[in-house]
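User: I've been trying to design a sequence by hand for this structure and keep getting stuck. Would you show me what you'd pick, starting by listing the structure so we're on the same page?

Assistant: Good idea, let's start from the same input. This is the structure you sent:
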């Protein structure tokens, strides 16, 4: 039997003191001592519990006190927290507002799951919380999840629901895969055809009946006001939204809208918004008007997303149109680029320079090292771990996103059960076993591993309930991997604690997959990931 309450991810330190219980009632107050930085956290906690916010931390009676403690900032960092529960009240101290927020999520998990629906009224006359002392901080700074909305679109309400579930797990990065061959999902005011044309495809591959098409048009996009709304909503939950805008490949939808920016002199050039899941030959052309087009797009993107990192994809860029285009070949010759790999690297370096001039950092999939890694780029490693090791040794930051453990479009059950197979079978236990720092990487370079994230590529996930079923509880396991100390991990204990979290997900209407006996199956042939 676990001696730790049903908290996921498991805290660094958690001690049940055996003292008298704290009772939450309708008279409980959430108090911040007037700290404006905690106003939003207090409002969210008060709404969850169905209680009021006090004007000051010294308010009499039954109080949950929130405060930022500079001493904890030094000890545990801005995301660390200390949570103390006694009969007299609850105190959550954070190294920063983020730490207080994460302490709130832990308090939430100390309360019965019915709190999610009924607030303090879930217990009738009141709810009790065990007397406990917790100190906690995350192991990694990048604790993320990618959601692909290009293959299948999700409206804002669904995105917000997904963000709420990430927040419960103390995840803090939301990579929003906004553009790809199958649809462009972000309004760019200077180029309206990106959404009037590029956001819509005429048909989609039938799930479980490939390669047949369903003949049903599919599309949608986010206005810039909706983007701002989502970014602000995420920020209230201490989640950074990192947009992914693909360069130079995965550009079919963009070039369907503005074909003049592609390799127009390559034989057979005819871009369209794609209906199938594959890698397509379209790439941006190396010519001045295309570069201006990309600069304009990124200028509007940067105005919408305050994130330090901007993801530019950079993966699976086919070289055939460049090799067949007289214009591209002439550019490569004039710039001493020996092949398409070096031209891809040129695009990445140019994009990195543009972002750096605007105070941002480029991150891309590990193909961005083809032809040479741009000096200030960070890498997201999805293929062989050797790319992560090499990048870290060269002084580049790395986010681990391997297909083997973090691709949640890969099935956990049978292909028939889950609407088609892609990649390897990835069980809950396998995800939990993941170690983000490669064993071959020397200790001097461990700090270059920023963390890890789970990927949800949506070729076979047409709706949010299907996304949730693929994500949870495997993303719950990954949340513990990236938050908790490696020495605290124990799969049997995790499975026991998971029962409480799954009951909470039930109350929240999250369509998770019920765990069953785990096994690692033989590999299934891979298809393109992004």
């Amino acid at each position: 039997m676990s001696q730790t309450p049903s908290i996921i991810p498991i805290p660094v330190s958690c001690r049940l003191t055996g003292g008298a219980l704290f009772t939450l009632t309708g008279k409980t107050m959430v108090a911040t001592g007037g700290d404006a930085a905690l106003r939003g956290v207090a409002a969210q906690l008060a709404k969850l519990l169905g209680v009021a916010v006090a004007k000051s931390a010294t308010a009499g009676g039954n109080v949950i006190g929130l405060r930022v403690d500079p001493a904890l900032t030094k000890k545990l960092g801005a995301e660390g927290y200390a949570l103390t529960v006694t009969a007299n009240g609850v105190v959550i101290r954070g190294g920063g507002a983020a730490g207080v927020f994460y302490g709130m999520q832990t308090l939430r998990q100390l309360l019965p799951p019915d709190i999610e629906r009924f607030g303090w009224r879930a217990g009738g006359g009141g709810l009790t919380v065990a007397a406990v002392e917790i100190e906690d901080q995350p192991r990694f700074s990048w604790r993320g999840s990618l959601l692909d909305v290009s293959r299948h679109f999700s409206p804002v309400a669904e995105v917000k629901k997904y963000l709420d579930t990430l927040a419960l797990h103390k995840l803090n990065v939301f990579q929003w895969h906004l553009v790809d061959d199958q649809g462009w999902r972000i309004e760019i005011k200077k180029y309206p055809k990106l959404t009037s044309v590029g956001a819509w495809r005429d048909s989609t591959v039938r799930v479980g009946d490939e390669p047949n098409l369903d003949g049903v048009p599919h599309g949608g996009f986010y206005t810039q006001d909706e983007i701002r709304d989502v970014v602000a909503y995420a920020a209230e939950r201490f989640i950074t939204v990192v947009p992914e805008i693909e360069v130079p490949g995965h550009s079919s939808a963009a070039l369907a809208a503005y074909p003049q920016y592609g390799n127009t002199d390559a034989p057979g050039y005819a871009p369209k918004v794609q209906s199938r899941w594959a890698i397509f030959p379209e790439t941006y052309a190396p010519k001045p008007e295309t570069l201006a087009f990309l600069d304009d797009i990124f200028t509007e993107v940067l105005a919408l997303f305050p994130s330090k990192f901007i993801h530019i994809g950079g993966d699976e860029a086919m070289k055939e149109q460049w090799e067949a285009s007289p214009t591209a070949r002439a550019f490569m010759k004039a710039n001493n680029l020996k092949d398409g790999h070096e031209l891809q690297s040129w695009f990445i370096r140019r994009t990195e320079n543009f972002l750096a001039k605007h105070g941002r950092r480029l991150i891309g999939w590990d193909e961005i090292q083809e032809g040479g890694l741009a000096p200030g780029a960070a890498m997201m490693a999805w293929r062989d771990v050797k790319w992560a090791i090499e990048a870290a040794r060269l002084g580049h930051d790395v986010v681990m996103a391997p297909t083997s453990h973090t691709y949640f479009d890969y099935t956990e059950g049978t292909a028939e059960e889950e609407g088609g197979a892609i990649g390897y079978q990835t069980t809950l236990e396998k995800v939990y076993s993941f170690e983000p720092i490669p064993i071959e990487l020397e200790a001097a370079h461990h700090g270059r591993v920023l963390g890890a994230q789970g990927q949800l590529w949506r070729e076979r996930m047409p709706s949010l309930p299907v996304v949730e079923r693929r994500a949870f509880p495997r993303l719950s396991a990954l949340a513990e991997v990236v938050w908790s100390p490696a020495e605290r991990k124990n799969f049997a204990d995790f499975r026991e604690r998971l029962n409480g979290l799954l009951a909470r997900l039930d109350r929240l209407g999250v369509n998770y997959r019920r765990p069953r006996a785990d096994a690692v199956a033989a590999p299934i042939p891979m298809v393109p990931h992004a």
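That's my pick for every position. To get oriented when you compare it with your attempt: The chain has 18 helices and 21 strands. The longest strand covers residues 449-456.
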